[in-house]
Amino acid sequence: MSSGDAVFVYGLLTLPEVVYAITGKHYAMQQASLADHKSYGVSQQPGETPIPALTHSPGHVQHGQLLLDVYPAELEKLDFFEELDSGLYLRQKVRVQSSGQWLDAWCYTAGPALVPYLAGEWSVQQISEEHKKHLITQLIPSMLTTYHNLHASSGTTTKATPLSED
């Protein structure tokens, strides 16, 4: 049996309950580090869920987690959540260090549409229980409804905005 891919996560996707809400799966996770990258906060309206974005940043090390054994159908849902088609994020192959080994993993980095909005520091401690509840009970279910409707009707995806407050 083949195993799935590893995905390096550093922000909202380090929260197992958020990943489960998106994919319906619980993943084994392990600590990992990505050299020459740093996460920043994304400027938004007050009250919105704080989100991070990762950029190439020589000399910095981004600590995060590896989601292990992520299969293509689950990766598609993560791609949709990260709005790859809008240019907000890109999914790239990176080389991370984890448990004394170097591993290849996918990683979501800031895309060209998001870079102008990077501002300041971001940490998972900025995510309140209220933010998590809003993501899990409202934004993610809405995003998944759109995802499933698009796949059922045409097999293609179009832009959705799971992190907006519309």
Based on helices, strands and strand pairing, what is the structural class? Answer: alpha+beta
Question: Assembly state here?
Answer: single chain
Instruction: Give the C-alpha Rg.
Output: 15 Å
Shape descriptor reads globular
Order of helices and strands: EHEEHEEH
Number of strands: 5
Account of the 3D structure:
- The chain is an alpha+beta fold and 166 residues long.
- The protein has three helices and five strands.
- β4 and β5 form a beta hairpin.
- α1 packs parallel to α3.
- It is globular, with a radius of gyration of 15 Å.
Which features does this protein show?
5-stranded mixed sheet; 166 residues; 3 helices; globular; alpha+beta; 5 strands; 34% strand
Task: Outline the fold blueprint.
Elements: E1 5-9, H1 16-23, E2 29-41, E3 52-70, H2 72-81, E4 89-98, E5 101-110, H3 129-153
Parallel strand pairs: 1-5
Antiparallel strand pairs: 1-3, 2-3, 4-5
